[in-house]
Structures are given as structure tokens and as C-alpha cells.
Amino acid sequence: MTGQSPVLRLEGIVKTFPGVRALDGVSLSILPGEVHALMGENGAGKSTLMKVLGGIHQPDEGTIYVGEEPVVMSGPLEAKAKGIMFIHQELSLAGELSVAENIYLGELPRKRFGLVDWVDLERKTNDSLSRLKVGFNARTRVGDLSIANQQMVEIARALTVDAKAVIFDEPTASLTDAEKVVLFEVIADLQSQGVGIAYISHRMEEIFRITDRISVLRDGQYRGTVNTSETDEESVTQMMIGRKLDLSRLASHHELGDVALEVRGLCCGDLFEDVSFSVRSGEVVGFYGLVGAGRTEIAETLFGLREPSAGTILLNGEELRIASPADAIARGISLVPEDRKTQGLVLGMNCRDNMTLPQISDLKAGPFVAEGAEVAIFDQYRDKLDIRTPGWKQMVGNLSGGNQQKIVIAKWLSMHPNVLIVDEPTRGIDVGSKSEIHNLIRDLAAHGYAVIVISSEMPEVLHVSDRIVAMYSGRVMRTFTSEEVTEDTLIQAISGLTPGQAA
Amino acid sequence: MAKLSQKDIGGFLARQGILVAFVLFMIGFTLANQRFLDPDNVMGVIRSSAILGVMALGVTFVVISGNLDLSVGSMMSFSTIVVLDLHDKLGPALAIPAMFAMTLCLGAFIGFLVGYLRLNSLIVTLGMLSAIHGLTLAWSGGKNMDIADKAGTWFSFFGQSRMMGIPVPILIFALLAASLGMLLAKTPFGRKVYAVGGNNTAATFSGIPRARVVFTCYLISAFCVATAGLLQASRSMGSQNTVGQGLELEVLAAVILGGASLMGGSGTIFKTVIGVLILGFIQNGLLLVGLQFYVQYVVTWIIIILAVWLDIAAKRGKLWSPIA
Fold first, then answer.
1. Cβ contacts (< 8 Å) between B199 and chain A: which residues?
2. pTM, rounded to two decimals
3. Sign of the CA dihedral with A469 first, then A470, A476, and A477 last
């Protein structure tokens, strides 16, 4: 395989965003007929790399070669014309249109008077579909298909052009095991036709099943490529996480209090089942798992946004029913949601008003809002969390991500909760603010708060937690104490592997 | 001189365009007709804008909460007909509260559909526009409604008298604007209206009950409509079934002219009052320069389009863009 020239080659790609070096000299080559895994933690630069390849971002430095020819990707259409196809994790299909219309969107075959040549369209579409051995046809409405089949439509779209390289971004995130088998067959089929495949996934099991080589990114840097047959999960994990990262636990140096929150056998439909755990005051419990493992849904249930189908929630030993966020807030449960822009903040409102929103009904002077008290709260938490803003009148939408996140945290801290749930506290935040927020979380625990941290980033979970709950597919796999946890055992637990199964 | 980019001009027009256009209109009208700035004319314009203005105050709440209310014109016809009819049957002292109660019920029904059942406000209020018109016709039997003994009642007080030399409709408009302005700008409820309109999901995540806030906004809107109906009935002492027809768009135009965003989350009562006055003066000016009354319908439409365009332009910072 080494004798062949690559179908797609990247050389020294650098991409910076304000304050972040997202890609730092990444080089990578994909050979015809190989499946090349691209791995790295969230935030390692995989998606930025894909956007550079797809022409959504232009690299600051470096060159992309398709075959031997250096190219400039001006946009997704350009990439398609060059034979580089993407199968995205988030599907981009029009649900109301038929399969055929979706596949040929923008380039429907025409006949006289500009009318669509439906016969030709269906014939071409059914040809591609038959290669995929799917159970639907050209006329099926895309909205009626399962997510897996919609993914097949995306793949069929990739097959309509003479693809040189196909990039799969977490394609199995929403597939069942049976559907995965079909996908892997399709990939093997493409492979046998000499198409180069880039395969992005977090799932070790799949990577070792179907890929030929593995390249690893970490913090925007290329960390090397290994042949899949010559490595194992542990060494790939090491490449991904790196030993240099500060994994020293910010361990507790304070006494833990009583159990603040206890959950017994909590279930919510298909989202999660039989979840039990407890959090003591002064303790940080981390929830770690893949996207879709049910962590956020547990938080939303505790916050009254979802109704549990079974199980009990005890706060300070007292059983309670939480029917709405207002209930949760009244009981002293606060949630810093995962998406600060859509769930955490009203971007068009100023900093002070956002911060005091949950308690606005209690901040009254006569019938009116006590603006002085509001400003006092804002000042207090601006100083405490070191929020950098010109003043409380500043629109929250104009602040940096880190400062926005601090506003959301301040909003919930100012409620003086018993239990603080923080979902993805540092998503999309630069490294400096990240460690500030980590220290803040530890500090809160030291002040006696019971804190739950949900995160998809392993260093973060290891860094801040006293205990870690590992989840896989809606179930708690194992609870670790910070002394006993290792990266390997944690990865095994969230991949649904029992210790005996793993290499 | 520094070159103005499309973005600069767009941004400026988006922020100040309506005021610039207003000033140009005023200068033009004053040059064309000396009577335009005459105190009597000015007072007349404000007085005739009061009914529209009162309705616009309520719709401001609905729009800031991220919804629409297209039923206000039709609802105002209903209030007017009902209060005129009940005046002769029950007397003014009972007719007025009865009419307010019925109008508030209509508002509560819309608020229930949009707030609690989460139906689309455009569809609900467009449907109610038609349904309430039917209700009005059923009430009146399709006939005009008149107060029999126009001289023997104090009912004309609201629409026709003056206090301290100022017409009562203007006083009521001012009083309502001041109190609703305080409610929106200074109370926890007002803050919640902005939060729900600005980001409904974030408001929910902050424990704010969206349904109740939206419901209350429609109640406030209905209260304003009832007040407008009272002013209308008292001013004319008789009415057709279609007295409020088309007002929903003028009201919306005034609110948007004032700078409230159709997407919700922004706008103030003060700005709405400005919007009402701009609309009133422009329509009056057009009459004074000798344009036919019917032309006003077209001009109002142009003003709405202009206002909506500027609203969008302000969002994207350009006058035109291929993507939102």
C-alpha cells in the first residue's frame, strides 16, 4: 500500500481563530483503498480540519493536495467537484423531499423546457441505492426514513459522483448494531473500488475493526500515524490524551458533608434506565460518557424538564417530585445547561438582567424590580468569578465564550443552590478560562456545594471530580473514586466493555 | 472624506432610518402646508391617533413576547358594538364592565391557545380576526349600532370631553402608556416578557413559565383593545360592524416603526408611542398636501414594508444579504 500515491494529502495545515491555534501544522495523507481513522478528543481539531477540507474555513498556512495537484477549497461544492465527499454526523437532508430529489438536489436531470426528467432521476437513484442494499427506493420521502436510512441517503449522494475520498464524521453515532454492519459493508465496497476513506470516530471497537491506519490529533497538533494492526487501544489512548496534560487531580482537602442528593433507580423512557447515584455536599461527582449516553437527560430530569418514568429523587434525605424548572429552583437545584447560547442566556439582554433572571420575582422593591439589589448581585459575582465586561449594561451576546459561561454560572450561584449541576462547563472555551472554571468548580465544592459535572472531556472529568460515574447507552456502568480511576478503565466503561473483554 | 461602506449605511439606516424619513416628511409637509404644525392640527393628530395608540400599547407586549396579534382590529369592532348595544339595555355603568369582561375572555382564549397549547400566534390570531368578526355580526344582526338618546348620557365623556383643556382620549392614552410602560420596564413581569421573547428556551431553563407570561400578554392586549373600543364608541355614539377593520396592520406598523423586533425580545412602550405618532403625522400630512384618503392604505403598506425591511437589516447589519 505504501507504494501508492495518496488520493488526498494535507501538508502543514495551520488554522488559528482569535486566541486559539485550532490546527497547528497538521499533515496527513489518505491512500486509495484504505480506511484511515482520525482520532482525537473533543476540541483536538478534528472538526476544524474537516471544515478546512470542505472549504468552510480557509487554512492560514499549508496546502491541500488532491492526487498530485495542490488545490484551494473555496466551498463545499468545490470539494465535491474535486471528488472529496463528506458524510456528516448531522444530516443535511430536506425531510419533505423524496430520496431521489435529495440525492440530486441542485443538479436534477432536466429535459425540454427545463422540466425535471423524473424517469432518468429515478433510474439513476435506484442504481446507486441498489449498491447500498437498502430497503427503500427513489420515491420514498426522506422524513419517513429512520436516521440510519437517512445516513444511507447521504452515502448514496456521495456515490453519485466519482468520489476519490469519502470522509465519515462519526457515522455510527446513531446507528444500531445491525445498521453498522451494513455501513461497514458499504465502506468495504468503496474501499475495493480504490476510494480513500477517512473515518472519524471515538469508538475504539469500530476503529480496530475496520481501519487500516490511525492518525491522532491532540490540541490541534498532529501526533502521528500508526498501522492499526501494529497497535492497541491503550497506546492509541495514550496518543490521544497525552501524558503531558495536567492530570493531577484537584483533590479534596476538605471534609465531605452529608448526602445532599440521592437518586435511586431513576428511569426516563428510552433515554436512561435504573440510574442510581448520590452526591454529598462538598463533593464533585463527574458524569462521563459518549454523546447520547443519557447524561444530559439525567440532568434535565433532575431540573424538572423531563418527567421520570420510574425511580426516586431524594434531596437531603427527603423524597421529592420535580415537575418544572421552577420547582427545581425552589428546592435549590440549579442547572448550568450544556448549550449556553440557546439554553443558558438571552443574548440580547444585558449581563445584569441575565444574571438575575431566575430570581427576578424575588428582587422587588414594592411592585418594581429592585435594580440596586440587582446591580449589587452583579458586582458581587463579577468580582468573585472575575467576569470581564465593560459593565452590567453590556449585551451578553458581545462577551467572549468564557465570560458568557461565567455569567451563566454566576446566574445559578447567586441562587445559592444546594445542588449545582454543570453540563459541559467548558465547551467552546479557551484554555485559560477552562482552568479558571475548573478551579471555580473545586472552590465551590470546598464551600460545601454538592456539584455534578457532566463532561465529554476526559481530562476535565479526571481533573475536577472526587468520584466519576461512567455511563454507556443510558446506564451507569461503573462508579470510580478518584484514587482508583485510570483512563483505560474509564474508556472501557464508557464503551460498554467489561474489563475482561478489553485487550 | 471616509468612504461609507454598504454596512455603515445599512447600519445607520437600520438604527435611524425611520427618524430620518420622519424628519424629511415633516419638513416636506410643513413646506407644503403651513397648517401642518399648527397647535390645533397637532392636537388633532394626537387625538385621532389615541385609539390606534392604545391598541398598539397592548400589542407591544405581545410582540416583545415573540408573538403576533392580528385580531385586535376585529376585536375592537366587537368591543365597540357590544358596549353600544349594552348601553341602551343596561346603562353605561354596567355596559362598560360587561364589555371589558367579554373582551378579556376573548384575549384569554387566544392566550390559552398560543401560550398553553403553543399554537402558532399568526394562525391563531388570523383565525380569531375572522371568528370575532362573525361574532360581532351575530351580536348586531349585521346592523349598525347607535345609542338612542345621545344627549341624555354621560357616555360621551371618554371620547369627546376635555379635562384641563386636553381631550380625554389623549389623557387615557397617556395614562395607559405611562402605567404599561412602567409594567414593562420596571417590574419582574416586564423582565420576563423580554426573556421569553428574547430566548424562550433560556427563559424556561431559568424557571420562567412561558405559557403564563404569553397568556398575560394577550390579556393586556385585550384590555387595551377594550379601552380602544370604549373610546371609539364614546366618540361616535354609534358604529358600523367594521369600525376596527384593518387596524391590526396599522397597529403592527406602529409597533414595528417604534423599533420592536418581530422576532421578539426588543422594543419599549416609549418607542411604540413614537411609532404611533409617526404614523399619525404622516397620514395627516398626506391628507393636508391633498392626497386622497384612500392613498393612505397604500402608504401605510409601504411604511410597514420599510419598517420590516429595516428591522431585518438591523439584525444582519446590511441592507441586503443572500442569507439570513
1. 342, 345-348
2. 0.76
3. negative
